[in-house]
Amino acid sequence: MIFTVVVTVGFYSHITYRMLIDQTKNQLLLQLDKAIGILEGGTLDDLEPSDLTFRYKNHEFNAHFYVVNASGFIVAASNDDFLGKAPDLRVNKEHGMGTIQGNKIMYVSQEMEGYTVVLYTPEKLLKRMFHEAIRLVLASIAVSSLILYVIGFLLVWKITRPIVKLKEVVNRYDPYRGDLKVSQVGATEIDELMHTLQSMSSRIRNHHENQIDFLQTVSHELRTPLMSIQGYANAIKDQVVSQEKGLSIITEESYRLIRMVDRLLELTRLENPDCPQKDQVIDLNEMVSQASDLLSTNAAEHGVQIIWTEREAKIIVPAEQLFELLINLLQNAIRYASAVVRVSFETNKGEWFLAVEDDGNGVPPELQDRIFDRYFKGEAGQTGLGLSICRRIAESIQAELRYERSELGGARFVVAKGKSSF
């Protein structure tokens, strides 16, 4: 603001001074014409200072003058001390700046028959007018600056007051105490910011509650096999159960514990945005064939056959993630199928789908909204993390995973990418 004022005053000062000089020169030229007219119609004695007046705003001034004859001496002047003397001013052009008796002046001149007429005004007169104009400008700037300062202070206070209030509320925010409570202030941008922060606090609280639920569930799920291991280890020690039976249960619970930890680590890895997977060109037919061979023993133990229609279907996706998703869906289908698990897939101009369905009993309608939740286990479920991991994988490859009722009578899980209706 100070820089702006300084530049404005400097610029205005220069412009004002130039305007004063131009206006004074024009006034002197007008009075010079008037003086020439008086001399041409009369004598030198007819020329008086009171006849040569000019105005600047509300001020009136008399122009000073002198007349020089052909011999170079002053024969008429507004100052009688100049009479009979050679002029101090050297007139080299019709108008300009000069010095008379040590005082700077602005002059205009014109030659007439036998004479040279010179009109002038002291520079101090210009400076006085200039200082009056500058004082007026400075007063105007001072008043304007004061008004702007008051307005700016009120505006800044109005803006910062809700921000300070919001800062205090945010500093006191604790997810244990619920959502962020901030009242509206009527300023659109600040209200939008408050609304955004309230929405963010709600998401933080929900995430915090989900984390607590997750830790409690994990603790419970991990505690169960650990207690079994500890119980049977003590039972073997106290010879309450046979060593063979106890070690068998301990081994089974250990495998269950390892599977659960592996699932948790996998879920954590998928939720880490710093671990992206590279896209690769894969053939869905080959992937389904490999997954079927890998799970053939498991399927045979359950008396289930994995079927699909062979066709060429190449897509570009992170291969490892999609293969893991397919394995999880097949394992889930094998556990619930009666005799058949069917895999289907199709591509269409860069869009694709992959579906796994079984001929089991399907998911009851009242449970269909919960099947992708962490630790939700069906009747034959193991860790309760399989479908949750599948959905997270689908999200990481920008695809959709959904549940449908299968034509075979059981469940149908479809992972699709694109807007086509498959």
Structure description:
Keywords: ATP-binding, Cell membrane, Kinase, Membrane, Nucleotide-binding, Phosphoprotein, Transferase, Transmembrane, Transmembrane helix, Two-component regulatory system. By secondary structure, this protein is an alpha+beta fold. The protein folds into 3 domains: 2-131, Beta-Lactamase (2-Layer Sandwich), CATH 3.30.450.20; 188-270, Signal transduction histidine kinase, dimerisation/phosphotransfer (DHp) domain (Helix Hairpins, Orthogonal Bundle); 280-417, Heat Shock Protein 90 (2-Layer Sandwich). Helix content is 50%, strand content 20%. The protein is built from 8 helices and 14 strands. The chain has helices at 2-41, 123-171, 188-237, 243-270, 284-294, 296-301, 319-336, 386-396, and strands at residues 53-56, 59-62, 64-69, 74-77, 95-100, 103-112, 115-122, 280-283, 305-308, 314-317, 340-348, 351-358, 400-405, 411-417. A hairpin with a 2-residue loop joins strand 11 and strand 12. Helix 1 (2-41) runs antiparallel to helix 2 (123-171) and helix 5 crosses helix 7. The longest helix is centred in the middle third of the chain and has 50 residues, at 188-237. It is rod-shaped, with a radius of gyration of 50 Å. The mean pLDDT is 80.
